[in-house]
Amino acid sequence: xxKLGWIGIVLVFVFSLAACGSQDLQEIVSEALGVDAxxxxxxxxxxxxxxxxxxxxxxxxHYDGDEMIKQIKAxxxxxxxxxxxxxxxxxxxxxxxxxxxxxxxxxxDGKALVPEIENGYYRLIDRQVExxxxxxxxxxxxxxxxxxxxxxxxxTNTLYCCELDT
Length: 166
Description:
six-stranded antiparallel β-sheet; alpha+beta; 27% helix; two-stranded antiparallel ribbon
C-alpha cells in the first residue's frame, strides 16, 4: 500500500512539472517577437514542428485596446507597411513576368497563412544568422529557413506570429 502512495506522489510531481513547462500562446508570442502579448485573446494557432524541429507555427492574437500598437510603435525593430520585398515574398509570395517565388508560410494546401493586410507593422527575425554578423537580405537565397515574422494588422488589432524552420 505504501508503494502505491509513493507512486501517486511521484506521478503528481511529474505532471506538475510538465504543466509548469508548458507555455500559453501569449507567452510563446512574447518570447518570439519581443513584445508583451499577454493581453491578447487567442484566435487560432497551429504547429507542424515535429521531432526533428522542422515545421511551421502560426499564432493569431486579437487585442481590444491599443496596448499592443503602442508597444510596436515604440520598438524600432517593427516597420510600418508596406512590406519589404523579402517579407512580402515569405508571407504572400511574389510573381514577376517570368517567375514566381513563395509564399513560404503556408497551410497544408499551399495557401498563405496570413490574410492580406492593408495597414500595419511587421518584424522579420532571421534566426539562422548570428546577431550583428549579417542581415536577412540573403534569406531568400538559402537552402533552408529559420525565421520568425510578426505582422500586426492595425485595422483589426490582430497580431500574427509565424515561424518557419526547415
